Amino acid sequence: MKRTRRYPTAVDPTKVGKYPALAFSGGGYVWDEVLEYRVWCHPERGAPDLHDGNDYFYAFATYPKALAFSRRTRGAEVPLVLIRQRQYIDEPSPGRFKHVKRVRITEWKVEWLRRARRNRYTIPKFLSPAAPANRLAIIRGIAKPRSSSKKSTHKKRVVH
User: Fold this and answer.
1) Under 8 Å CB-to-CB from 88, ≥6 apart: which residues?
2) Which of 11, 47, 96, 97 would be a feasible disulfide site paired with 33, CB 3.0-4.6 Å?
């Protein structure tokens, strides 16, 4: 049996299934809390028609339970995760980033949780002029500090 990757349990399992169905989709680059895992079902793809032909979802506190349900349910998508972002990074145009200090709830691909959870340094480091060329390395938790741009005060000796 294939082992599933470990993802966080919902921050408050008693609230799973009580969040609004409509949420933002993707974006923000960082995450703070997992609220629930969702498996969306589509009657047009073979899921039971429980809501007059409309799509619907089942909510789970853990990824393994959501994944198991998704695999055994006809017309179901792979699980998504509903996250809370207390702060996030907006990209209003390609390569232009903005620190947003506002709470939002959004659905993400579960694998995006592999990115390090936001801490107080994540966004400032991402936006820093000293950030690596691949800023996503900061989000992924694999950024290497840039080497110092100071020039050496030692004179090089050239030998011919």
Assistant:
1) 27, 28, 29, 30, 100, 104, 118, 123
2) 11
Tens-of-pLDDT digits for all 160 residues of the chain?
A: 455 568 999 999 999 999 999 999 988 999 999 999 999 999 999 999 999 989 999 999 999 999 999 999 999 999 999 999 999 999 999 989 999 999 999 999 999 999 879 999 999 999 999 988 888 888 887 877 555 444 444 444 444 4
Residue 97 belongs to domain spanning: 13-139
Q: Is residue 158 part of a domain?
A: no
Give domain status of residue 24, yes or no: yes
Amino acid at 115: R
Residue 60: name the closest of 36, 84, 35 by CA.
Answer: 36
Q: Is residue 112 part of a domain?
A: yes
Using a cut of 0.70, tell me whether the model's pTM lies above it.
yes
CA pseudo-torsion sign 56, 77, 67, 13: negative
Contacts of 112 (CB under 8 A, 6+ apart): 31, 81
Residues β-bridged to residue 59:
38
Find tokens 């960082």 and name the residue: 30
Structural domain contains residue 95: yes
CB 110 within 8 A of CB 81: yes
